[in-house]
């Protein structure tokens, strides 16, 4: 376990959302989406979530290990995808790592069609994603 990337979930206490919760798992900050149903495509929900991701991006500490669990989500609207891109940019700027858990084939397809799969570390399970933080060769992208 690398202390270089260690962060406590309590380092993001000011970030709250009706759409996700933040917890710590070992040295990884885990963000789990919930509360909006499997489709995050309606304009109002998508815009709220984009803003919440922007708040999260503004609060990430340097060298954070951030795991975003999207396993309950089947579809994302463009504003949410924009929020994810901004979150990824901010995490990279702070020399951190952002990984996604995507279990729904429809969401995998969204990332393939938009060509975003090459910009994110995407995993099929939370356990696999958590384990990958410990494997240095899997942390480049």
Tell me briefly what this model is.
The protein is an alpha/beta fold and about 140 residues long.
Descriptive terms for the model:
Transcription Regulator spoIIAA; 141 residues; globular; 21% strand; alpha/beta; 4 helices; disordered N terminus; 5-stranded mixed sheet; two-stranded parallel ribbon
Let me know the largest β-sheet. 5 strands, mixed
Give the overall shape. Answer: globular
At the fold tier of CATH, the topology name is Transcription Regulator spoIIAA
Q: How large, in whole angstroms, is the Cα Rg?
A: 14 Å
Distance between the termini: 20 Å
Q: Looking across the biggest beta sheet, what order are the strands in?
A: 1-2-4-6-7
- The second-level CATH architecture is 2-Layer Sandwich
What does the model show?
By secondary structure, this protein is an alpha/beta fold. The protein contains four helices and seven strands; from the N terminus they run βββαββαβαβα. The strands form two sheets. It has a five-stranded mixed beta sheet with strand order 1-2-4-6-7. A hairpin with a 2-residue loop joins strand 1 (20-25) and strand 2. It is globular and about 35 Å long. Mean pLDDT is 82; it is low at 1-10.
Reconstruct the topology from this structure:
Layout (H helix, E strand, L loop, with lengths): L19 E6 L2 E6 L5 E2 L2 H17 L5 E5 L5 E2 L1 H16 L3 E5 L3 H9 L7 E3 L2 H7 L9
Parallel strand pairs: 2-4, 3-5, 4-6, 6-7
Antiparallel strand pairs: 1-2
Helix pairs in contact: 1-2
